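Reviewer 2 asked us to include a model.

Predict the structure of this chain.
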Amino acid sequence: MTFRAKLLGFAWPAALLAAVSQAQAQYPRASAQYPYPSAQYPYPSQQFPPQGAQYPPQGAQITRPVLPRAGPQGAAPWPPQAAAKTNNWDITIGPGVAMQPEYIGSNKYILWPMPIIEIKWRDKIFLSAKDGFGWNMVKTRHLNFGPLVHYYLGSQDYPSGMDSVDAGGQFGAFVNFAFGHWRLDAKALYAFSGSSEGARANVGLSYGTRINKVWKIVMRAGVSYFNDNEMKTYFGVSQREASSDASSGMRQYSAKKGFADVGFGAEIAYGFTKNWSGIIKLKATQLLGDAADSPLTTKDFQGYGGVGFAYTF
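Predicted model (structure tokens):
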């Protein structure tokens, strides 16, 4: 081996070290912060391009990683992400008072408590002073139906000699069909306790809308149908009752099944705050058929009005 070859053999490590030193001076060290992660460079086997290479290579596209925009230190990321709903309950409760007939068909009115109770769990189970306790067994965008347990208050204010109607429970089913602002609803109930042993059904059409940011209204027209037992409970006069000394000459009357009433009502709500609201309920009912002809009926056109306050959790 010639002296020149030996010299070259010993000189190449020094030349390599010199090249590395020059590259380190020209490029930042690997530990220094660099705007792009090494994985995104077009050279997978090395962190930086070799000395003399064009960077970025002609035609190559380097994409800056997309990072969430951060607000001030400690602030939530922007844009804000929709938080998942953790509360499965919707609760609205409050007190109220109403003016209503002493009994169905009476021309005398009394003050009566009007509790406001609207409780829903996952929009599946509901408890309502108006609609009872029910389960949305099937629920779609437009249709829902399921079983229902309800109650009736009865009345102790019937004319002298007439049997009072004790409060009791009812069970049945409901179905609602909603389209836009409109809703068609129906329910059928059968009494399983109290003075009544009858059944009734009600069908109605309602329209609801928000007038502005604080006012909203729901209007409903409906008709009720009673079977024989239900008609006799509220409008019939038995032979025993008619022959009673205290009956004031009330004649015997056997009320038959049929349509009992048709009515129109409105519920108006005003939002005082995000949680507090005031509620006004109005309703007018016209008794029909045997219900209107009963000797117990002294006024076949009935009115109802109530006012209350509610808090929504």
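Residues 89-312 form a domain with the Outer membrane phospholipase (ompla); Chain C fold (CATH 2.40.230). The CA atoms of residues 26 and 51 lie 9 Å apart. We have added this to the supplementary material.
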